[in-house]
Amino acid sequence: MPIQRFVVGPMGNNCYILYSELSTDAAIVDPGMGSEVLNQWISEKELQVKYVLNTHGHADHVFNNSFFVQDREEVLGIGFDDIPLLEQLESSGGWMGAKPEASPPPSIDLKDGVELQIGSQKISILSTPGHTPGSTCFLFEDSVLTGDTLFSGSIGRFDFPGGSLTDLVASIKEKIFVLEPEIAVLPGHNDLSTVEQEKNDNPFVGINSTIDLSTLEG
Description:
By secondary structure, this protein is an alpha/beta fold.
């Protein structure tokens, strides 16, 4: 499945477009602040956005939900445990320098076992709580989109309300590190990686980790 990455907003969010070369289907993942620029690229490719998907409910990842869903037929999906975060978007998102519009309500609960169709290809949902209660990752072909669960050389924060270091580590080890080693890791911020690289060398959770997680637990 072709993937186009855009880096947007003051937090340098990775916003992704997943699309099919054999149809016009596409999905936007994590439309952060500044992601309006995706519209031109989508138009040039003559794509039809079928889904708007959130890996989790933090404001920098859902800032433009309304922009891409309002007055259209796209379907919004998020892990429903993060609906309270979506409902707080108008009041909590101003720290980025602009006030976001309220997010439309989601209609798809992204949880284990859910599969979404893009053309003839499928996106499989992995429930990965820890960064937030409703955090999810998206697995397709040779890539896994990890949001703020796993980064290149790091892990997501767990000190926000609803976060859990225990859950985060379990999600990474039981849902991501069991995947094929060559699968690309596409995180919500910063550079790309692979399952093998993170499984071996991630300083927090890798085999050769150098950080004692017990010192980080509150």
